[in-house]
Every structure is written in C-alpha cells, then in structure tokens.
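Morning, I've got a small favour to ask if you have a moment. I've dropped the whole record in just underneath, so have a look.
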Amino acid sequence: MHLYSHPDCVSHETPEGHPERSDRLSFLLEHLEQTGFTQDCPLIEAPPIDENLIALAHHPELVNRLRQSVPKQGLTPLDPDTWMGPASLSGALQAAGSVWQGVKDVTQSKANRVFCAVRPPGHHAEFDSPMGFCLLNSVAVGAINALNLPNIDRVAILDFDVHHGNGTVDLCREYPEILVCSSFQHPYYPHRLHDVTAPNIVNTPLEAGASGADFRRAIDDSWWQAIEGHRPDLIFISAGFDAHRADPLAQLNLDASDFAWITAEIVALANQCSQGRIVSTLEGGYDLRALADSALAHLEALTA
C-alpha cells in the first residue's frame, strides 16, 4: 500500500473556527505515526498534477479562475463555506496529484491500494465551481482520466461521506463507464443533485439518527449488486468520516467499526473484479479523534 500526502495540504488555511481546518490533517498524520502505521507504510510526498488533466474533467478555466482568487496574504472567501489562502490552490493541486499518482501506482502494479491523506476535500466541487469546502474534485479528476489508460474500461467511485457527493455526480453522470455510489444524510447539505436518476448513479439517503446497522443495511441493499454488475477495473473511495456519531456537522450514528466494515466489503469486491486496485482519498470528518480513529480503521481494513 502507498500512503500519499503533501505539506501544502496542511498549509491550506481557513478562518478561525472553520470545521475544515489544518489540524484535521496534521492530527491524522500524527495519529498514524504514533500508532506505528507509517512504520510499515511510510508517507510519500505526492507530485503535483498536470493541470491539463484537470481540464479534462473540470471547466478548462476553473484552475485559472481559482489562481486569480489566491490572496498574497490573508484569506479570500469563494462562498460562505469555501475559502482560499496563499497555499490553498497548491494544496488542492497536490491533493489531485496524490490521487492521480495513486491511479498510476495501482495500474502499473506498484501498489494495489493507495490512500491519499489530503485536503481540501473535493467531492462537492462541481464542473465549473468550487463549493462546500472543496476547490477541485480530485476523485472525479482521477476517475475520468483513468478511463484513458490501457485496460481501464470502467471505474467506480464509492462515497460514504455524510454529505452527498454532488460534485462527483455532476462531473461523472455523463460517463456510463463511471459508477457513482453515494450514501448521505438526507435531507441535508448540499441539497443538490441527490435526486439525479441515471443508470450509473446510485444514491443512498439515510435519515438523521440512522445507526450503523441502518447504514450497513442500506449499503447492502443498494451498492453491492450495482458494483458487481458494473465490474469496475479500478475502485475509488471518497472516504469521508463525518457520519461518525461524534461528528459536529451531521446526525448519523456510525463508529469506526462501520467504516472498517464497509472498507472490508469494498476490498473483497475489488479483489473479485478490480484486481484489488483501490485508490481512496480523504473527504470529510470534523471531530479530530473520531476522524483519526475512523481513518485508521479504514486503513487497517485496506491493508488486511
């Protein structure tokens, strides 16, 4: 397994009190070091992505528009939730670069699993606009460009963040080769694209207060048959851990064992139909301890 991150992902700044803050990532990386996980799986600094690859997924001018919004100092709001500091665009480019390097690693048999410990998150960023803490949709960029690689005809994006992956649906719904499965609290933010109906989109809404058993039942009922039928050559995971019961931004009641469970199920499917190839990237999760414990459970299941 390869584990990617980059200092610019920590350096991306948001206002004081903002839930998507730098110590989300620094705390997680410290936890992985303290638990010994990085002894067996050392952290690798990812290269930046070729911006031409972003333009194949997002609007061709999106990166330039973001670059024009980068402040020399201080912070610039793009919307009430989404902010840019001097290192923010670089962090987003490094996050996308981590995912793309992961794609190359698993398709070139350098690793069969990759986790990208990065921020800002990406799954709310739509075709031509950042939103919801997200600047660039790293997973969608990786998935769309992966289709141009030899022997990658179909991919799947599996998103268990507590918020619907509206950006991923927006970018991928016109690609029948990309299956998108998203579980999410509903009704809840972002209130967009959660009702898209397309053969390659599987939306799995969960009511506030849903338990881990409710989550597992809903996933069993809606995801596995769709994934087996799609038979992806590569699986992406948008790994958000904000469905944890301790998370301040949502009202689901999962714990680390639920994230370990869904990861183990995905690994079993990947071994069956995708030659074991999985690229996972961090999305949400805003209680530091719950995030660290859940991400470690996810990583241990990925490497089991």
Remarks:
- The first strand starts at residue 2 and ends at 5.
- The chain has one domain: 2-303.
- The chain has a mean pLDDT of 98.
- The CA atoms of residues 105 and 111 lie 6 Å apart.
